[in-house]
């Protein structure tokens, strides 16, 4: 399948960018921000001035000798396109006239190429930033050279494709640079599916999912991405590992897990082996309403603990429910109270229906009322669309960002309150009128993740104004016992908070592992392990 390049200063397929805000959204924003949002001019790619130099000629020649001259790119546009990820602060930075970019973009065509690039980088004192789909939202793709002379972006797009499908075992081996839609298309041809659908599905890569411990919208049914991984190959500066031998093993600590979440700081994942399943024969969408978020969350807990087996189950709070309805054009309904849950069951014929009935019985016994299944179908149709709206909002001077965390069911509401308060006071201090939306995005028998969306009229440099607000939220999350990230990862943005989660000893262990695998510290400096931590 043909893969397109993402918009350089925004999300997704450039042909799907919308200039105008939907009428319902404009109305809501005018009420929230106190003024009607206005569209500003966009910077042209040609007008971006890069503040970091191109690698010197000897570096380029050494890399070109390893991967071929066409696959070492130093042109302005390619460098800008690899200058960072796709968080809203990233996009704000992308829209600034002066910005930093990697000194070159290198596209290895084989695992041997990757090993050669790492060797050259270590010899020549260059940092290496692995680049999968480029959809990171926690800062792990910045051209940070650390103490090195320069940084290269290692774009893994040529390392793509299905290598093997073991239909008997339900296991597929892919090269790590394969984008998710390409992987699903290859599996679908053979009657299989992976079932990993994060909102970034259309552009993210399998290696990126493994490196970030991603979680997709169907996680209730098929698990997080790390639960799907049965094996990995990883090239590190000190050697290559081939990990994951059997579906269960007691051969010491599981090194596959060490590289899940390693975020390019320990090595380059070149191959991913994954659990896959037959394409579901049946699919049933449902929606339920609840009088309030607490009742809805408790109903989701009961479903998860009863194990009735939904593929998707998510609950929007009152504010998010209202906005979803407004976006759908039902402004009148936006004023109605309550929360909405969308539910999907899929699986073999007959099985999905019986699971659906079991889930519906638990939800209604817990206070839910069946609503039009069109709500769930509309969510499914539009589930990859929100990032396009974020771009249009940014063009209208409106900052929209998301953040997430997770905790146990018993602590869920305290965590939600702590995050909401941190956001509200932080944004008020920044002088920003705002709205905070929240949903339960992923569920487990013992707890759930909370996903927040913030829409704010941040004044001045929006990325700079957001920084202290985000820091306050991170403090609140760690103080309330939540995880610093349920699925967006650590990156550079959360690195200063990692010690609060894993302890000083935990951080020392990670540093020791990094020192063994990457003695020169060339792999993604500042990502995962905080700067100044000796890593
Ligand atoms: C609009 C939007 C929606 C999103 N929705 C979700 C969501 O629903 N669920 C979710 O989990 N995440 C989501 N994300 C975050 C992001 O898509 C995930 O973190 C994803 O796993 C990144 O994959 P990628 O291929 O784009 O990796 P990249 O962004 O290219 O890289 C991410 C990090 O992993 C490293 N890396 C990438 N490939 C490799 C490799 N092969 N070996 C070693 N290191 C590597 C990079 O150096 C970087 O540190 C979203 C992001 C955006 C912008």
Question: What does this protein structure show overall?
Answer:
With 535 residues, this protein is of the alpha+beta class. It has 19 helices and 20 strands. The chain has a seven-stranded antiparallel β-sheet with strand order 17-14-16-15-19-20-18, with helices on both faces. A five-stranded antiparallel β-sheet has the order 7-8-12-10-11. A hairpin with a 2-residue loop joins strand 10 and strand 11. Helix 2 packs antiparallel against helix 5 and helix 4 packs antiparallel against helix 18. It starts with 22 loop residues before the first helix and ends in an 18-residue tail after the last helix. The mean pLDDT is 95. Flavin-adenine dinucleotide binds next to strand 5, helix 7 and strand 12.
Number of strands: 20
Instruction: Give the fraction of residues assigned to helices.
Output: 25-40%
**Class by SSE composition:** alpha+beta
The dominant shape is globular
What is the CA-based Rg, rounded?
23 Å
- Ligand catalogue: flavin-adenine dinucleotide
Question: Please, how many helices?
Answer: 19
Most strands sheet: 7 strands, antiparallel
End-to-end separation: 40 Å
User: What is the residue-averaged pLDDT?
Assistant: 95
Uncertain residue ranges: none
Strand order of the largest sheet: 17-14-16-15-19-20-18
Brief descriptors of the model:
single chain, 535 residues, alpha+beta, seven-stranded antiparallel sheet, five-stranded antiparallel sheet
List strands and helices in order, with pairings.
Blueprint (H helix, E strand, L loop, with lengths): L22 H11 L15 E2 L6 H11 L4 E2 L2 H6 L6 H7 L3 E2 L4 E3 L4 H14 L1 E6 L18 E6 L6 E5 L4 E5 L4 H9 L3 E2 L12 H7 L6 H4 L2 H4 E8 L2 E5 L11 H5 L8 E8 L1 E2 L3 E9 L2 H14 L5 E5 L1 H10 L3 H4 L4 E9 L3 H15 L3 E3 L2 H8 L4 H10 L3 E10 L3 H18 L4 E10 L3 E10 L5 H18 L15 H23 L18
The chain binds flavin-adenine dinucleotide.
